[in-house]
Amino acid sequence: QVQLVESGGGLVQPGGSLRLSCAASGFSSDEYVIGWFRQAPGKEREAVSCFGHEGYTFYANSVKGRFTISRDNAKNTLYLQMNSLKPEDTATYYCATTLGTGVWCANYHAMKYWGKGTLVTVSS
Asked: Residue 22 pairs with which residues in a beta bridge?
């Protein structure tokens, strides 16, 4: 059973930085996509950044140049470095994944496994 556990959220001032982590376990295949999604109160869940197949990496336009996704395969951990944070980045951030091929990693409807989320609040 795939399990995802996020950490690293918190309260930060505008312009500040945070690094989110997602510890993953239980993968039965090397064919999967994985990424970060977020949901602000009253808004639809959206893709932030993700790793797809064959080296594909996605960033939402709103975070390009500010956020960086990375992973440490030895530690089975996914990261999201968030710099120059803005109040509009306030949301619960989720790590999500699905196994198999032919999936666009930014399609949150296609993600089968989700973590419980970590809250990021950007406020002065």
From this structure: 6, 78
